[in-house]
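User: Hi! I'm working on a homework problem where we have to compare a predicted structure to a textbook description. Could you give me the structure for the chain below?
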Amino acid sequence: MNFPPARILLGPGPSMTHPRVLQALSGPTIGHLDPCLLDLYAREQNLLRRVFQTENEWTFALSGTGTSGMEAALANLIEAGDAVLVAVHGYFGARLAEIAARLGAQVDRIERPLGEIFEVDEIEAALRRKPYKLLALVHAETSTGAEQLHVAEIAEAAHRYGALLLLDTVTSLGGIPVKVDEWQVDAAYSASQKNLSAPAGLAPITFGPRARAAVARRRTPVPSFYLDLNLYADYWSGAHAYHHTASSGLHYALVEALTILLEEGLESAFARSRANAERLWAGLEQLGAPPFIPPAYRLPPLTTACVPAGVDPHAVRARLLNEYDIEIASGFGALKDKVWRIGLMGYSSRPENVQKLLEALKKLLAD
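Assistant: Happy to help. Predicted C-alpha cells:
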C-alpha cells in the first residue's frame, strides 16, 4: 500500500498521533466480549474520569466520532416536545440546535456574533422566559477559537431554573481545564482525535446523577438503539451484555493516549498548550495575521488567524500542504475567506511545529 506523506497536522483535528499510540494500534485484534477488552474498559473509564475530573459512573467512550457523542447526549436527555435552550456562538452550537430539533424538541436559540461569547446574565435572562429541560452549550467553539467562560456560574443558573446543563468539550478536553464535578456539569462529551491525540472514532462521554435521573424518567425509549446509554452501560459494566462490535484497536489507542496525558499531568499539559499558543499568537502578530479572538477568551488549542488583506487564504493553505506537509484549515461560513484555523492540540502542540509553521507562512506571505 502506498501511504500518503507524513503531515504536520495543525488544523482543527485530527491532531498528530504520539508514537506510543501508533504502537498501541498494532496490538492484536480481539473480540468485543473478550475478558481482556472488558478489563481494558474498566481501566479506560478510570482514566476518562480523571481527565473529565468527575466521579460519574456513566463515563465511557462511544464508538463513533465527536458528533456521535453530541447526538447520544441529546438523544438520551430529550424527548419529543421537551423545551431546550441552545446558546449558539458558532457552527457547533448551531449543530446542537439542529440535532435537538430533529429529535422533536421545542428549541429556542440565543446567539452571539461569531467570535463572541455569552455573559452569565444573558443566559440567565433566557432561562427565565419559560421552563427548559436542557441548556446546551459549547465550551470551546472550534469554528471561531473562542472559549466560553463562566461555565460553573452558567450551570448554577441552569439548575436554579430547573434545567440540565449539557457541555460540548470536543475541543477543550485535555487542552484546557474541564471540571465536570466542580462546575456541576450534568453531561459532557468529547472526541478522541483532538487534545487526546488518539485516532478519530471514539467519543468520550460522561453523565452525572441529574442526567441519569432524567434518562430514568423517560416516558419513551431512547430513539437511537446504537446510542442508548442504558445499553452502553450494560455492555461496559455489570452483565457485559452484547451491544455492538467495538474496535479493540481504537480502545488500545485511547487508553495509551490518556495514559500519556496523565503521565504528563493535566496542569502541565494545559501549561504546554498555553505556552505554545502564545508563541503562535506572537508570531502571527508579527506576520500581520493576528488572532481573531480577544486574549481574554482566546482558545489555546485552536487559533483563528486573520488572513492579511490581499492574500488568497486557500492558495496559502494548499501551498502549506503541498510544499511543507503542514495542514491548517479555513474558516466556517462567514469566516470562510477571512481566517485560518490553526490547531495546537495534544501531540501537535510542540514548539518545533509552531516554528515550522511560522517560518513557512513568512515565506508564503512574502511571495
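For your comparison, note the following. The CA atoms of residues 87 and 124 lie 11 Å apart. The first strand starts at residue 8 and ends at 9. Good luck with the assignment!
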